[in-house]
Give the backbone structure.
Amino acid sequence: MPYKPIESYCVIGDLNTVALAGMDGSIDFMAFPHFNAPTIFAALLDSKKGGFFKIAPSMEGGRHTQLYLPDTNVLLTRFLFNEGVAELSDFMPVQESRHQHRLVRRIKAVRETIHCNMVCDPRFDYGRAGHSIRKNNEGVFFVSEGYNPVTLFLRTQAPLKIVDRMTVSNFTLNAGESMAFVLEEAQSIGRSESSAPGFVSESFKQTVNFWHHWIGMSNYKGRWRETVNRSALVLKLLTSKPYGSLVAAPTFGLPEVVGGERNWDYRYTWIRDASFTLYGLICLGYTEEAAAFMRWIEDRCSELNPDGSLQIMYGIDGSRTLEETTLSHFEGYMKSSPIRIGNSAYGQLQLDIYGELMDSVYLYDKYGPPLAVDTQGNRERSC
């Protein structure tokens, strides 16, 4: 499978992690269940060993297009052929209460009869851990091996076959028919809510409504509103719902220059990057995100370095040591290696972070509730 241009991917997410979906219907990158967790799909970094999840018509030729439903992070991929038209919708439900991480994919025949293929080929722990597969009448379990095992369940009504370490399906849709696939963490107790007959349709509506509600809170009324909203939606996808921190990027190992060695892991919170992001969100009226980040900053200020300083970056959960290692078994995007996870830059000294952080703190103090006195004192000591 050849590597696709990085710009041909679109992103979906649930404020815990993201997936990158290509125009060919293949999800080639996904850390699961969190931004900084090991990958289950990483064909973007190694087309043979990384793993992928592809749903697409089996017809040759045609044109592919991608777009988001307006003002949402619900992705539509359209396959246009002379013989017919198909549409693939991809999204990750965002739940306000207890969260079970899910990836929902649904392909529909819009015009004429469409023959489709599905391949789900997860590779756990950055492609380092093996896994077993077992099937029941509702889908397939993927059970990883090794350290910190993960069990995934692929739920669908499509006919499934197990081939080697992956699951494949071939099915036909007549005009107006659809087929859904839900990949989720396996429930240890009880039945999953995704087993309900109307789950996919209902979660689609809830996800669309969530993003419509969120973007509706923006106070931006100027020119290029659609572009500004799209940028805000992407920034929101980089926000960790459990912690309030923001990742600089949800990926690792992608090269600054194809064939180069500057292939870093950016799935961490840089004080500088997060401050600039908060600046933009505050200007759009998103003080709730600013408040969550300030609470995260308060926690960092309560555990300053012995000299009273902040680190330039932290894990999304506030972890301080981000040990850097190399995935030597991955060839890298278009053979750009080495592939690194972790980031040793956490030990660097960069004094500019205090100015950027203070700018964001000032804006939050201006437009949000006042900061705690203890936080202001810690902030002053760190500067």
Notes: DSSP finds seven helices and 20 strands in the chain. The chain has two domains: 6-216, 238-382.
